[in-house]
Amino acid sequence: MVRDALGVGVAVGLSGFAFGVTSAGSGLSLLQTCALSLLVFTGASQFALVGALAAGGGAVTAAAGAFFLGVRNAFYGLRLSQLLALPRAVRPFAAQWVIDETTAVSLAQPTRRAARVGFVVTGLSLYVLWNLTTLLGALGADAIGDTKAWGLDAAGPAVFLALLAPMLRTGTERAVAALAVLLGLGLLPVLPAGVPVLVAALAAPVVLWAHGRRNASRGHVREEER
After folding, report:
1. Mapped to the 3 state alphabet, what secondary structure does 55-87 carry?
2. Element (H, E) at 157
3. Quick check: 37 and 13 in contact, CB under 8 A?
4. Number of DSSP helices (H) and strands (E) in the chain, helices first
5. Torsion, Cα of 80, 81, 82, 83 (10° steps)
6. What is the pLDDT of residues 46-75, one digit of tens each?
7. Cα–Cα distance, 85 to 205 (Å, whole number)
8. Distance from first CA to last CA of the chain, Å, rounded?
9. Which pTM value belongs to this model?
């Protein structure tokens, strides 16, 4: 479990190179780039912010897109607060590490103790490496060149999907995942950055509602047959 958590931290932490390069290319200073990784520490929101700035968007528009993407972490926190049951004094500090990867690793563990260890190991390794590679990427932006050629921007999503896939055991869970993907990808061209992610979250209640109606309909048919 510790090995898996470290693997996630290292694999995703390398994406900090891509962020550092992208941020520097968008016109942010070294201090601003490093401050984003230290204080925000949620890769999707950081990339959305600097990507919007690089495309010529205003600061308010860029911040709004980053905010929408960051909202999902609040929902992660609701689930992790029950799973980890950390002391109140620790929760404000742990909140900084509530992101996609720590949530996925924690939820994959069989016990609360294992979930806590997975959360801490993933959060610590990822936070340290993400900030280190952000610094290196910002310093060496000119030398690194196009991050797409390195594939670093795809490391985070790839690791998260690899963790999520084994957890989709039932047909209902797979249906939720499939609908979320369709909503997220389908709405990308027409909605502001961050909004498709929030809309994709509606997949769960929609599928559960449809599942409930189907079960109720089957029950009604059985009663009539009797």
Report:
1. CCCCHHHHHHHHHHHHCHHHHHHHHHHHHHCCC
2. helix 155-164
3. no
4. 14, 0
5. 40
6. 887 887 787 676 777 778 778 877 888 888
7. 26
8. 51
9. 0.69
